[in-house]
Model the fold of this input.
Amino acid sequence: MTFSPELEAKFADLVTHYPEGRQRAALIPMLMFGQDEIGSVTQEMMEELGRRLELSTMQVDEVVGYYSMLHKKPMGKFHVQVCTNVACMLRGGAELYDHACHKLGLGHKEVSADGRISLEEVECIGACSWAPAIQVNYDFHHEVSTDQLDTILEGLEK
Amino acid sequence: MKQFNEPSPLETRIISFRFGLENSASIDTYLAHDGYKALRKALEMTPDDVINEVKASNLRGRGGAGFPTGLKWSFVPRASEKPKYIVVNADESEPGTCKDRLLIQNDPHQLIEGVLLGAIAVGAKKGWIYIRGEYNYLIAIMDKAIAEAYKSGFLGKNICGSEFEFDLYTHTGAGAYECGEESALLESLEGKRGVPRIRPPFPAISGAFQAPTLLNNVETFCSVPAILRMGGAAYSDLGVPKSGGTRMVCMSGHVNKPGVYEVPLGFPMMKFVNEIGGGIWKGRQLKAIIPGGSSSPLLTAEECDIPMDYDSIAKAGSMLGSGGLMVMDETTDMVKLALRIMRFYQHESCGWCIPCREGTTWLKKMLQRVTDGHGQTRDIDLIGDLAANMLGRTFCPLGDAAAMPTIAIVKKYRNEFEAYVAKNPFAVSDLVSIS
Done:
């Protein structure tokens, strides 16, 4: 499989950040950046990164399974993550999530049929003082009301 | 740069005073406002002098455990032949906590300078900033600041014309609360699942890549430049004995002006909520406060009239923890709160230690049962007993973090659990607890 030249350059730099012989340390950043480019952690990607870091595919798989942001199935082009943890819950995070479910017709970790939008109920995303908060891909939206959520969802490009 | 909340005149801004300045994240702004002065000072000092200054400051770890920082720094064996490393814990994930994010976003050079001071103190030449995956945008900010620091001679070889050299990198996490725990973070940094390590050996002896490692929270490192500039004793005097200086407290929940505010250790909690936070929203009454992230036991309204320092909060039966202060008004349903907290810990338990893996799972099931109106009186006892049996029986504090708030909620708001049980038409009062 191939990555873009920019990502290859990033990978080449990344492995130099760790002590000699400990290049495995680059695995999680590579998986994250790879997923950002490819859309999910594919079997092919696990094999390729394993080859590069001298790990078996199973060793890579075992790491992938641990981290909640690594997805083996593609999420939507816009991955909507609604926090319902305590600080957000106290300010309406659960209602916001329910609203998003109804509005999108999706449940937890479900992807729309056209692959455009996916929804996830997430744990604390570190926006507690500006709750309730959501992330669309990596973008934070703070103090989101149900009306604002509608606006955000409608504003996502087609 | 967006500040997120307006500062309060009641703050003591020691590490957040650059927030809100134009281009506050740039090296030019940093240099124009005392930037890298502490580094130049430290380069003239011996490592022991740096450590002694930090000891004198009474700075305690801002990540959660509150361990004295100077003491931690003195544990790293400088004479070791192995390379020494610095690791910054920017895996801020404790529910209620959102301060490290602001420190990096608004003032990344302050963190770099703090790391350099740590490196001088322990003789490290390389370090990583482990940033949680959700904070992706901070990686770009941090990488830019690191590049600026290399260009201006504050990173790399011959720093400020001295013999001192240091390389610093960012490292992204991929979504795991557990990786905020130091030993799990080190596993994750090495490219593995984030399961905790048994200690001893502590990271100071065997940390990243099995080498001596100085590992501190973002805010802890960010506090050190100010300590070197103003002197450890002066910094300590800002706070109270044994809890020196200031800290960032993240106020969330049912208050009028939630936000992250920097106050001296020992600042009165109710003054913080009422004057800085503008009081309880909607004209309601205070019911309870979680003082230091969701793993700290909550305090009832009657217990909240205390100063916010490590020892005073510990005396009240809770923890200052990570500084995530969550305020709850009189309408808050404590049973649902307990369930939500447990859902989180059950989701985040890494599964390595059985008391935590099974304990959080069963606690979640029982709390769900009570919330759904199918609970029995004995469930209430069992929830408390099971949680108490998790304490101290795991490699890392996640098991304790799940158990402690649960024990406190069940004990302090038992009546609310009983009210839920009373809704169960099949409740049998004389079912005996199986514990």
User: Anything to note?
Assistant: The beta strands of chain A are 78-83, 110-111, 117-122, 134-136, 139-141. Chain A has two domains: 5-64, 78-155. Residues 27-38 of chain A form the longest helix (12 residues).
